[in-house]
Amino acid sequence: MIYYLTIGLLGLLCLSIPVGIVLFLLGFGIDLFFSPFPLTKGLGNLVWSTSENSTLIAIPFFVMLGEILVRSGIATRTYEALDRWVSWLPGGLVHANIATATMFSATSGSSVATAATVATVAMPQAEKLGYDPKLFSGAIAAGGTLGIMIPPSINLIVYGFLTQTSIPRLFLAGLVPGIALALAFILITVLICMLRPSLGGQRRVFALSQMMRALLDLIPIILLFSIIIGTIYKGWATPTEAAAVGVAGAFGIAALFGGISMAMLVEAILGTVKITSMIMLVIMGASFLNFTLASAGIGRELQEFLGGLGLSPLAFMMVIVLIYIVLGFFIETLSLMVVTIPIVVPLVVEQGYDPIWFGILMIVLIEMALITPPVGLNLYVVQGARGKGKMSEVMLGTLPFIAVMLAMVAALIAFPGIALFLPDAMQ
Fold first, then answer.
1. Which of 1-10, 30-39, 264-273 is predicted with the least confidence, judged by mean pLDDT?
2. What NCBIfam families does its record include (predicted)?
3. Which residues, other chains included, contact 23 with Cβ-Cβ below 8 Å and sequence gap of 6+?
4. CA-based diameter of the chain, in Å?
5. How many CB atoms lie within 10 A of CB 278?
6. Cβ contact 143:97 at 8 Å
7. Which secondary-structure segment (H or E) carries 38?
8. What φ, ψ does residue 346 adopt, rounded to 5°?
9. I need a surface site. Which of 72, 137, 183, 278 has the fewest CB within 10 A?
10. Alpha-carbon Rg of the chain, whole angstroms?
11. What is the pLDDT of residue 6?
12. Which residue has the higher pLDDT, 15 or 211?
């Protein structure tokens, strides 16, 4: 049955059917051919109970926050400011790509939105300043993945919702690995450009006065991040309430810099509706698929298979990591999360692993899926912003950053405290 399910999933995705619809179709197929019960009779109640959860209200708020910052021109100001602070390093403007992605990850909560933001702002500079298109594009695609690690993260909200774990603790757990990944991306870029200076383009050094003035464009974003995260950890607001405060703060920042207009607001609202609708369709489709899998006994069979391998906890985790790497080649990231979490997380907990820690490990693996072909969304976002050249250039450019992510996976397994230090310290 699992064989037919995998073939069906890949076949429907190859037909370019939206992922959310694919998940519903697979659920209908299981109901029709493998289940003795009429599962579709519970579809309406299942969809409603999934979508009306108050935790998920945070998703459109965080999406709108990012939309306002991007469409009001704050992204361009942030990029130019960071350019003045990091372009003296070997690699030049490539570091501004990573630094801007890191900063916007701390507000937008979406990897695709972060990659699209940085790509739109940065790509016009690449050819003009003589940068290698592979490394430059790969850094944007990889930097964009930080949007689902550094809090606030939409994917961590979904993980917390599905596993009933603390979202504030997940946010804390993602902070150190997220910043560590950003610094590692910068370090690997420096090493590459020291070995091959021609890849790094022009290094630029700005006067201290220019650098200090640029800080004025960074202060609002830093303040907004501090307000969102601070209100959550102080207990003054839930993640949903903090997201609403963040939207108000983003609106205020946009107004301060003169970026508010009726056209901008309409575009931000439409973008929010489209992205939120896509996310919710995937969540509802995956919930229905998981319901049919459980009813048909497939989930139990898979759990028994994995549990019956007789592996040590470490070997078991290696199998799980390998499964996620392979599935990440073919399945869109949010879908991969919501389909596998109900099956995998209980087994991981049985092996003695912390669900908060595993959530962060899973996010790193999901980040890899965003920049690995054939369905790595960030690859298509960056290539679309380029508007020319080959997709293979973007893929090759991400290879050093994929190696960094694999190193982070190994580090998290060897030293779980990387993720658990802050959550444990805040208790």
1. 1-10
2. dctM
3. 282, 285, 286, 288, 289, 335, 339
4. 73
5. 17
6. yes
7. none
8. -60, -40
9. 183
10. 21
11. 62
12. 211
Give Cβ neighbours of residue 355 (< 8 Å, ≥ 6 apart): 163, 165, 345, 348, 349
pLDDT, position 365: 93
Q: What gap in Å lies between CA 166 and CA 254, rounded to an integer?
A: 32
pLDDT-based confidence at residue 393 (cuts at 50, 70, 90): confident
Say if residue 120's pLDDT is above 80: no
What's the CA gap between 419 and 169, in Å, rounded?
10
Angle between helices 58-71 and 154-163 (to 10 degrees): 180
Angstrom distances, CA of residue 381 to CA of 201, 357, 397:
23, 29, 14
Contact 1, 296 (CB under 8 A): yes
How far is residue 93's CA from residue 107's CA, in Å, rounded to a whole number? 22
The CA distance from 423 to 427, in Å, is: 7
pTM, 2 dp: 0.82
Residue 152 preceded by cis peptide, ω within 30: yes
The two three-digit tokens of residue 287, written as one number: 């919930």
Q: Could you identify the residue written with the tokens 């599935």?
A: 327
* Alpha carbons 175 and 286: distance in angstroms, whole number: 28
Domain boundaries, the chain: 20-32+56-425
Alpha carbons 22 and 29: distance in angstroms, whole number: 10
* Alpha-carbon distance values, 128 to 117, 133, 192 (Å): 19, 11, 21
pLDDT value of position 416 = 93
Q: Give the whole-angstrom CA distance, residue 84 versus residue 216.
A: 12
CA distance 318 to 312: 10
Q: What is the mean pLDDT of residues 9-16?
A: 65
User: CB under 8 Å to 33, separation ≥6 — which residues?
Assistant: none
